[in-house]
């Protein structure tokens, strides 16, 4: 992708695209039925987005993904984190 494109995204979101791409690469072969893997992903996304996630919210996200079988993607986690 175009470096200028990534710089614009970083400027608008404050999120380092290298971190996002590294995370995306690590997710390719991850086991999302494993609770500790899902918790690690949630914590990493929280860190990258600079959005703290309470233990209660983390538990809800984990239950939703591991027990309910929902897909894990940035939009799903973002919606859950930003829910008031």
From TrEMBL:
<dbReference type="Pfam" id="PF14069">
    <property type="entry name" value="SpoVIF"/>
</dbReference>
<dbReference type="InterPro" id="IPR025942">
    <property type="entry name" value="SpoVIF"/>
</dbReference>
<protein>
    <submittedName>
        <fullName>Sporulation protein</fullName>
    </submittedName>
</protein>
